[in-house]
Amino acid sequence: MEMRRHADDIPRSERGLLTAYWALSGYGLRASRALAWLGAAMLLTIVLLMAVGLAKDTPKQTATGTVPAGGGKVTFEIDKDDPHSPTGNRFTGKRFEKALNVTLNSVVFRSSGQDLTTAGTYIEMTSRLTEPVLLTLAVLAVRNRVKR
Length: 148
Prior knowledge:
By secondary structure, the protein is mainly alpha-helical. The chain is built from 5 helices and 2 strands. It has helices at 2-6, 12-25, 31-53, 93-107, 118-147; strands at residues 61-66, 75-80. It has a two-stranded antiparallel sheet with strand order 1-2. The longest helix is centred in the C-terminal third of the chain and has 30 residues, at 118-147. It is elongated. The two termini are 19 Å apart.
């Protein structure tokens, strides 16, 4: 793979893919490298979620309705405000716990159910794509070592 990565006659896309595979997991031989990248990606996700991804307050649901004068059927409309970006101190223990919960859930393709800002939604989507890939590379590297 090293020779293919340095060859001039292969397409740039394949060369880029091989370079990423080498950098992230040492061609599937270095589980520690993949785990280090996974840890770094999770830490970056936590910091980004604490900074801009978590809502200031959890939006509350409100119910409004009307009761007809003579009795009868009551109609309610349930509405929820959009999450707002945080202001003030963003790096607190409570926000760290929420960000950690979202990040750990994203590693295993689960949604946390946490109210996130628009930026937080994109951060979570990105982490739900990249972090399981890094975990898979680490598992494959361990499998390759055990298989020998």
